[in-house]
Amino acid sequence: MKRALGSRTSIALVIIAALLLTTPLAAWADQVKLNVGLANPVLLSGKKQTTYLKVGLTGFPMASAEKRAPVNVAIVLDKSGSMAGQKIEQAKSAAIQAINRLQNDDIVSIVAYDHTVQVVLPATKVTDKYAIASAIRRITAGGNTALFGGVCKGAEEVRKFLDRNRVNRIILLSDGLANVGPSSPAELGALGASLVKEGISVTTLGIGTGYNEDLMYQLAKASDANHTFIGEDADIAQILNREFGDILSVVAKEVLIKVTCAAGIRPVRALGRDADISGSTVTAVLSQLYSRQEKYILIEVEVPATAAETSRPVAEVTVSYANMQTMATDHLSSTVSTRFSPSEQIVGQETRPDVMIAVAEQIATENSVLAVTLRDQGKVEEARRLLEKNVAYLGKYATKYKSDSLRSLQKANWQDSQNLEGKKWIEGRKLMRDIQSERQQQRGYTNPKR
Amino acid sequence: MKPRLVIIFLLIVLLPMALMLWLGVRVVRNEQEMLKQRFRDVLMGRLDDTTAVMQRLMEEREREMLRLTELRAFDAPSMRKIVRENPRVLQVFLLDPRGNRIHPPPDGPLCTSEREFLQRAGQVWKDKQVFYRQPEGSAPPSQPQAMPANAKPSLRSLQNKQTVPQQAQIIRAAPDQAYGWYTWYWGSGLNLIFWRRSPVGHVFGIELNRARLLADIIAELPDTDPADPKLPSGRIRMVNAKGEAIYQWGRYEPPKDMRPAAQVALSPPLGAWRLDYFAPPADSGGGLVLNLIAAGVVIGVALIILAVYFYRESAREIREAMQRVSFVSQVSHELKTPLTNIRMYAELLENEVPEDDEKAAQHLGIVVSESQRLSRLINNVLTFARKQRDKLTLRPSPGAVDDLVASVIESFTPALESRDVTVTFNSGAAETVRFDADAVEQILGNLFSNVEKYAAAGGAMDVASRQEGDTTTITVSDKGPGIPRDQREKVFDPFHRLSDKLTDGVAGTGIGLSLARDLARLHGGDLRLVPSEEGASFEVTLNTPRAEGEAD
C-alpha cells in the first residue's frame, strides 16, 4: 500500500513540475495579436443601422527562421502539353529552388499530372535534396490535364504525414483547363472545403492565360489559401518563393474565431470570407496565420435604435488557435461596444480608419466579383460602370484614410475596367480573380503584373 | 482445250488452298476467341480487384457514417460541428419521426451552406418516406449487386438496407432501426446521402462531399508511375454516368474512339459509375496467323509446282497427239493424188476393156470401187483433221440434191449389188438449191458405206429425199441388225464402234458417223437416228436455201 501511494505521489509531483515549467514558458511566448474594432465606435443615436465589426489577427514575428513549424508540402505540377517549353522548365527550377529552402524535418512530395497522375516523389523528409531535384528534373510535359486527380494524389501524399504540428499544404501549379475528372469550380471548391477541414490548404498558381481561373480561385478560397495569376513564365520562381516564404512563416493554425453578438445586435453577413452565422453567433475558421501578416474577418452587424449618450456592448470575440511555436493551444478574447451620439460629426470623426479600409476593400472586392459575373453575362457596360464606381469609391476612401492599400486597389480596379473587352479580357479576368483572392485572403504580396 | 486446262489448273491449286484457308481461319478464329476470352477474364479480374478496393472504401465510409450518426444530442451546434469538422461531410439534416425537419432549423437562422443544401435537396424531401419504410420480413443482408455495364442509371436509384448487415458490432440490431444510402442527381452529378433512422424514428441524414468521396477513391487507386512494374499495360478509366473520365491510370494511351476491352459497373451507391479497361491492340494470335500464312504459302507453292508439272505433261501429250494427227492428214493428203490417178485410169480402162472380157471387167470394177472406198476414207481423215484444226468450212453451190443422191447411189451400186443389197431411191428433192455437194456426198457416202459394211444381210437399202421450204431431208434406211437402244447416241461419238471384234471382219475408222453429223450440223441441219420397225434408219436434214438467182 505504502509503496503504491509513494509512486502515485511521485507521478503527481512530476505533473506539477511540468506544469510549473510549461506555464510560464507559454505565457512568455509570443501570441497572435487580436484586434477587434467597429467601423463606428460611435453611432448615431435613435436609429436602427448597420455597421461593421472587424476581427483582425496578426501573426507574431518568429524568434528565428530555424525555429519555424515544420512543413508538409505537396507540389502538384501540371505537366500537360501546354506546359511544354519555358513553363515546365521554370516551374521545375522554381520547385527545386523552393525545396532548397526546406530543412531535414520538413516533408515534401511531388505529384505531376497530364491525362494520368504520377506521384513523382512520394511524401518524404527533405534529407536528400539532390535526389529530390533529380526526380523533379525528370518530369516532361505532354498530354491532357487531370487536375482533380493530381490534387487528390497530392492530398494523399500530404495525408501520409498529416500532423497538427506541421504546416500541411498543397501547391498547385497549372496552366490548363482541367479536362480529365471533375472540372467545375464548384466541385474543386468542394474538394478544397473538405481538405481544409483536415488542415490542408491548396495554394493555386495559374500560369499563363489558358487556365480556368474560377476553378483555381475557388479551390484556393475554399481551402483558405492564396490564388495567384502568374502572367509571365519568368515570375514562376518569384511567386513560388513568396508562397514558400508564407508557408515557412506560419505561426498559428486552426484559428477558430467565435463572435457572440450581444443582446439586440444581429449579425447580417460576413464579408470576404465564409462564416457560419447561426443566431447571434458567428463562427469562422482561418487555416493559418503567417508571421507579421494580418488576416481579418469582417461582419456586418445590425444595431437597434439606441438612446444618445449611452453605450451598449456589441459583441464578444473569442479566438483559439494552435501556436506553431509553442505547439500549445492559445486563447484570446475581446469585447467591443459602441457609444451613441446624436451628432453626425462626432460619428464621422470617430470612425476607425483600419476598419473602414477593410470595409472599403471588401465591398470593392464584392463589386469586382459581381463585375466578373456581369461581364460573363455579356454586360460589358454594366461591368465597366461598376468598376468605375469602385474606382471613385476607393479613391474617396484612399484619400480620406491615406491608405496605400486602397490606392493600389483603386489602380487595380481602374486597370480591370480597361481590360473588359476583346483579347484583353482573357488576361483581365485572371487579374481580377487574382486581386479578389489577394484581398479576400489578405495575401502578403501583390501580383507582379500590377 | 486451253480454257479447260486453266480451270483444272486453278481447281487443283485453289480448291485445296481455299479449303486450307478456311480451316486455318477457323482454327485461328477459335484460338483468338479463346485468347480473347482468357484475356477478358484477366481484365475483368483486374477490374474486379479495383471495384473491391472501392467497395471496401464504401464499407469503411458506411462504418464511419454509422459512427457519426450515433448522435445522442440532436442539437444544432453539435450538428454544425460535424459539418465544420468532418472533411467528408457536406451537410447534415435531421427529421423527426413524422418527417418534419428539425435541422437545418426551419425557422432559425441558416448559414449559406445550409440554404444551398435545402435548395439542392428538394428531391430528398419529396422522397423522405423511404427513410420511414418498415422492414419487409427478414430479408437477409444483400450484398450490393453489380449492375450490368450498359444499364442506365435511373434518375433516383435507391438502395435501402432494412436489416443489419455484417457490421453488427457498430449498430444496434433493433428491428425498427434502418440505414442506407440515398442518391440523387443535382447539378453536375451524383449526390449521396447516408441516412439512419433511430429506434425512436428520428432520421439523421448526412450528405457526403462528392468531390471528397471521389478524392478518397482516387487516393486508393494507383497512379501512373512508368517505373512501377505493377502498373497495368492497358488503361483503366473510371467513368461517370455521363461517360466522362473521372480518373485513369495505366501505361497505355488509347485512341479517342476506342471501345473498352472490358467493363464493370461499380457497386451501389456508385452504380452509375463504371470502370473501363482499354487494352493495347493485342498481338495474341498474331503468331498463329503468321504460321498459317507461312504454311499456306509453302503448300500453295507446292501445289503450283505440281499443277505446272501436270500441265506441262498434258500439254506435251496433246502436242504429240496433234503432231500425229497432222502426220496422218499429211500422209492422207499425199495419198490422195496417186489415188485419184488410179481411179481415173481405172475408170478409163473400164471403157477400154472389151465387153466380152467379163473377168477383166469384174476385176476392174473391184479396183474402181475399192479406190472409191479408199478415197472416201482419205476424205474422212482429211475432213476430220480439218475439223480438229477448226478449219471445216462449206462451199455451197447451186444444184439438185436428187442428182447428187442418185450419183452417190450409182457409185455404190456395184459394191451393194455384189453383196445382194437392193437399192430403192424415192426421190423428192429435185429443186435447185444451194448446198455443198462434197459435204453431202461425204455424209451419204458414210451412211451408204455403213449399210454396205454392217447391214448387207438385210438385203435392202431405201433412200428417200424430200424438200420442205429451205430444208432438204434425206432418209437412209436398211433392214440390217439395227442399233441397240443404249448405243443410239454413242454411235455418233468419234472413234466409237459398235463392235471392236476383229472377227467381224469389218474394218473402219470409227469416225464416219461422227463426221457425217458434224457436216450435217455445219450445213445447218442434223443427222439423227430415227426410230424404225427394223434395221437402222438415219435422217439427214440440211439447210438448203433456194438458188433462184443462179438457176440455169
Give the tags:
heterodimer, A: 450 residues, alpha/beta, Immunoglobulin-like, Rossmann fold, 3 domains, 6-stranded mixed β-sheet, 12 helices, 29% strand, globular, disordered N terminus, B: 552 residues, alpha+beta, Helix Hairpins, Heat Shock Protein 90, 6-stranded antiparallel β-sheet, 5-stranded mixed β-sheet, 10 helices, 17 strands, rod-shaped
TL;DR?
Chain A has 450 residues and is an alpha/beta fold.
Largest interface: A-B, 38 and 37 residues
Please state how the strands of the largest beta sheet of chain B are arranged side by side: 2-1-6-5-4-3
Q: Mind describing the biggest β-sheet of chain A?
A: 6 strands, mixed
Task: Write the CATH homologous superfamily of the largest domain in chain A.
Answer: von Willebrand factor, type A domain
What is the count of DSSP helices of chain A, taking H or I runs of 4+ residues? Answer: 12
In whole angstroms, how far apart are the ends of chain A? 76 Å
- The number of domains of chain B is 3
Give the class-level CATH name of the largest domain in chain A. Answer: Alpha Beta
- Range of helix content of chain A: 40-55%
Strand content of chain A: 25-35%
Radius of gyration of chain A: 24 Å
CATH topology of the largest domain in chain A: Rossmann fold
Shape of chain A: globular
Q: What is the number of strand segments of chain B? A: 17
